[in-house]
C-alpha cells in the first residue's frame, strides 16, 4: 500500500450534498413554517416586463407577503434587486421589544430570502438555486417557493424543480479542508414548497445523482497531491466501485510493462509514485444496450517533467487528473441511475515528475499496440497516457462508443474560455447528442474541427507519430492534440472532450465553485440517460 493511502483524507467516506425534500403544502398553509424547524423562507422575484420596470413577484411571493404582513416587492426594490437570475437578498426580521408587542411574523422563520429567477429558464433557475445555497449556508433548513409556478404542467414542474435542485446542490459544495477543526458551516436542507408527485420526485433524484457525481469529481480533484498519487487514486476507485457492486481491474507497473503501455510508463518514470491503469465496469441487469467506454486523463500531479512548468502554472496541477475523476464518477452514477447501457471507465494514472529516470524530449516510446511516438515536450504528457488507454480500450473492450475526457491543452482555454469545453468527434450523431446533453445540463461544449490539413503536425521522421507539432506556425494546439488521439481509436465512434478551461475555476460563479468544477460528469450522465 502506498504511504499516501493512510490518514484522514484517504479514509473519509465520499461527501454528499444536503438533503432536498418535497412538501406539497404552500407558504400559506405549511405547518413547517410554524414548528421552529425552518430558519428561512425563500421566495422568487423576476425582472419587470416591457413598459413596466416594477419587479414581478412569482408564485408564493404574494402569499408570503400576506402571511408575514410585509410588502416584499417594496423591500426588494429598496435592496436594489432587478430580479436577474442569481440575485439573492436576505431580510433579517427584527424581534419585538417587550412582551406586549406582537409582530405579524411572530412564530414564523426569522429570515426571508428574495431570489431572482430571471426568465425562469432552466439556466436561470439553476443560477437561482445556486444563489439560494450561498445565501443560506450555515442554516439548518430552508423552505423555498423558488421555481414553483401555478401555470406549470407536470413536465414543467419537474424541469423547474430539477434545475433549482441542481443549482442548489452544486453551489452547496465546499472545499475539503485539512484543518485542526472541522468546518461546521454546511449548507441547509432544502424544502421545495408546493411541489410533490412522482414526476417532480424523479427529477429531483436525477438532479441529486448528477450533483453527487460532481461532488465526487471535485473532491478527488481538489485532494492535494501529497495525498493523491496513482496508487491512492486506484485504491479509491477500487473501494468506490466495489461498494457499488461494479467490476474492477487494476494494472500495476508489472502488468503495464508486460502489456506494452509505454506512454503511461514513460510519463510516470520520473516519479517515486508508480503508475496504474484502472478499469471499472457497470453492466445493467439483463445486459443489453450499447457499450460506452469513458477514458479519463489521470495525471495526479503535473510538474511538466523535464520540460518543467513555471511555478505559477504548477499550483493548480493537483486537478490534472480531473478527467479520470469524471470517468469514475460517470460509471458510478450510471450504476446508481440504472441506465440501460454498459458503461466502462478507464483511468490511466501517472504522476509527471522530475527524476533521474524521467523520460526526455527526443525519446521514442511505444504505445500499447505497437505505435511508436517521438517525444518533443514532456509537458504534453496527457495525450501519451490517453493514447495507451484508448488503444487498450479499442483492442480489448469492444466499445460501441468511445469518449475521452481530459484537461489537455491550454489552447482550448485560450480559444474557448472557461464556459465551453472543446468537443471533437468522428460521428455527427455522437457530437450532436453530447452537445444537446451539454445544453440541458449547462455543461456547454463547442464542436471543433478535426482539420485534415493539420495532420502533418503529428508526423515524425524517427517514429510513427510525433506527439506535438514540430512547426509552431501550425498553431491549433487543441486540434493537433485531438488529431494525435484519433490515431489510437481505430474505427470506433469516438469523441474527445478537452476540459482544460471548464475543469477549473478561479472563483465561485453560479453553480460553479472555485478550484475543480467537476465539469463533465453531469453532461456524460445526461448523454447516457438519453442514449437510444
Automatic annotation (TrEMBL):
Gene name of the record: pepA
Active site: 309, 383
Family label: Belongs to the peptidase M17 family.
A molecular-function term among this protein's GO annotations: aminopeptidase activity
Organism: Cellulomonas avistercoris
Keywords: Aminopeptidase, Cytoplasm, Hydrolase, Manganese, Metal-binding, Protease
Binding-site residues, Mn(2+) 1: 302, 379, 381
Free-text function comment from the UniProt entry: Presumably involved in the processing and regular turnover of intracellular proteins. Catalyzes the removal of unsubstituted N-terminal amino acids from various peptides.
Entry-linked Gene3D superfamilies: Leucine Aminopeptidase, subunit E, domain 1, Zn peptidases
Ranges where the Cytosol aminopeptidase domain occurs: 377-384
Binding positions (Mn(2+) 2): 297, 302, 320, 381
InterPro entries reported for this sequence: Leucine_aapep/pepB, Macro_dom-like, Peptidase_M17_C, Peptidase_M17_leu_NH2_pept, Peptidase_M17_N
Cofactor note (record): Binds 2 manganese ions per subunit.
Cofactor annotation: Mn(2+)
Catalytic activity: Release of an N-terminal amino acid, Xaa-|-Yaa-, in which Xaa is preferably Leu, but may be other amino acids including Pro although not Arg or Lys, and Yaa may be Pro. Amino acid amides and methyl esters are also readily hydrolyzed, but rates on arylamides are exceedingly low; Release of an N-terminal amino acid, preferentially leucine, but not glutamic or aspartic acids
Chief site of localization: cytoplasm
First-tier enzyme category under EC: hydrolase
Protein name, entry field: Probable cytosol aminopeptidase
EC number, as in UniProt: 3.4.11.1, 3.4.11.10
PANTHER family, sorted: CYTOSOL AMINOPEPTIDASE (PTHR11963:SF23), LEUCINE AMINOPEPTIDASE-RELATED (PTHR11963)
Subcellular locations according to the entry: Cytoplasm
Amino acid at each position: 500500500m502506498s504511504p499516501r493511502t493512510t490518514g484522514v483524507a484517504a479514509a473519509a467516506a465520499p461527501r454528499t450534498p444536503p438533503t432536498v425534500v418535497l412538501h406539497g403544502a404552500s407558504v400559506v398553509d405549511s405547518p413547517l413554517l410554524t414548528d421552529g424547524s425552518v430558519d428561512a423562507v425563500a421566495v422568487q422575484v423576476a425582472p419587470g416586463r416591457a413598459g413596466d420596470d416594477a419587479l414581478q413577484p412569482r408564485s408564493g411571493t404574494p402569499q408570503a407577503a400576506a402571511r408575514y404582513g410585509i410588502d416584499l416587492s417594496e423591500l426588494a426594490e429598496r435592496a436594489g434587486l432587478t430580479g436577474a437570475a442569481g440575485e439573492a437578498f436576505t431580510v433579517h426580521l427584527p424581534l419585538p421589544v417587550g412582551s406586549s408587542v406582537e409582530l405579524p411574523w411572530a412564530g414564523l422563520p426569522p429570515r426571508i430570502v428574495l431570489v431572482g429567477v430571471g426568465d425562469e429558464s432552466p439556466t436561470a433557475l439553476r443560477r437561482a438555486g445556486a444563489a439560494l445555497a450561498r445565501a443560506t449556508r450555515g442554516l439548518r433548513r430552508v423552505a423555498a417557493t423558488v421555481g414553483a409556478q401555478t401555470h406549470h404542467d407536470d413536465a414543467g414542474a419537474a424541469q423547474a424543480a430539477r434545475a433549482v435542485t441542481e443549482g442548489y446542490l452544486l453551489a452547496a459544495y465546499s472545499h475539503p479542508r485539512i484543518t485542526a477543526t472541522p468546518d461546521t458551516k454546511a449548507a441547509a436542507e432544502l424544502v421545495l414548497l408546493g411541489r410533490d408527485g412522482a414526476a417532480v420526485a424523479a427529477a429531483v433524484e436525477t438532479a441529486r445523482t448528477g450533483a453527487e457525481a460532481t461532488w465526487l469529481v471535485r473532491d478527488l480533484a481538489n485532494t492535494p497531491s501529497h495525498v493523491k498519487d496513482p496508487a491512492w487514486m486506484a485504491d479509491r476507485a477500487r473501494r468506490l466501485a466495489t461498494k457499488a457492486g461494479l467490476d474492477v481491474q487494476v494494472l500495476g507497473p508489472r502488468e503495464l510493462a508486460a502489456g506494452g503501455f509505454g506512454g503511461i510508463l514513460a510519463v510516470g518514470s520520473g516519479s517515486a509514485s508508480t503508475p496504474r491503469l484502472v478499469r471499472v465496469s457497470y453492466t445493467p441487469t439483463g445486459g443489453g444496450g450499447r457499450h460506452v467506454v469513458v477514458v479519463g486523463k489521470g495525471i495526479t500531479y503535473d510538474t511538466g517533467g523535464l520540460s518543467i512548468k513555471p511555478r505559477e502554472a504548477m499550483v493548480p496541477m493537483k486537478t490534472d487528473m480531473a478527467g479520470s475523476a469524471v470517468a469514475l464518477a460517470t460509471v458510478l452514477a450510471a450504476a446508481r441511475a440504472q441506465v440501460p447501457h454498459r458503461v466502462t471507465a478507464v483511468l490511466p494514472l501517472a504522476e509527471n515528475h522530475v527524476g533521474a529516470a524521467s523520460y526526455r524530449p527526443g525519446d521514442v516510446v511505444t504505445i500499447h499496440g505497437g505505435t511508436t511516438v517521438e517525444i518533443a515536450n514532456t509537458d504534453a504528457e496527457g495525450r501519451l497516457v490517453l493514447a495507451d488507454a484508448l488503444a487498450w480500450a479499442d483492442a480489448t473492450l469492444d466499445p460501441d462508443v468511445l469518449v475521452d475526457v481530459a484537461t489537455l491543452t491550454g489552447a482550448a482555454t485560450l480559444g474557448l474560455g472557461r464556459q465551453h469545453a472543446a468537443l471533437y468527434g468522428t460521428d455527427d450523431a455522437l457530437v450532436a447528442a453530447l452537445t444537446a446533453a451539454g445544453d440541458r445540463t449547462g455543461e456547454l461544449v463547442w464542436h471543433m474541427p478535426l482539420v485534415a490539413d493539420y495532420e502533418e503536425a503529428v508526423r515524425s521522421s524517427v517514429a510513427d507519430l510525433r506527439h506535438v507539432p514540430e512547426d509552431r506556425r501550425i498553431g491549433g494546439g487543441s486540434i493537433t492534440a485531438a488529431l494525435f488521439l484519433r490515431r489510437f481509436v481505430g474505427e470506433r465512434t469516438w469523441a474527445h472532450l478537452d476540459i482544460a478551461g471548464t475543469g477549473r475555476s478561479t472563483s465561485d460563479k453560479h453553480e460553479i465553485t472555485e478550484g475543480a468544477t467537476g465539469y463533465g460528469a453531469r453532461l456524460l450522465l445526461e448523454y447516457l440517460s438519453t442514449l437510444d
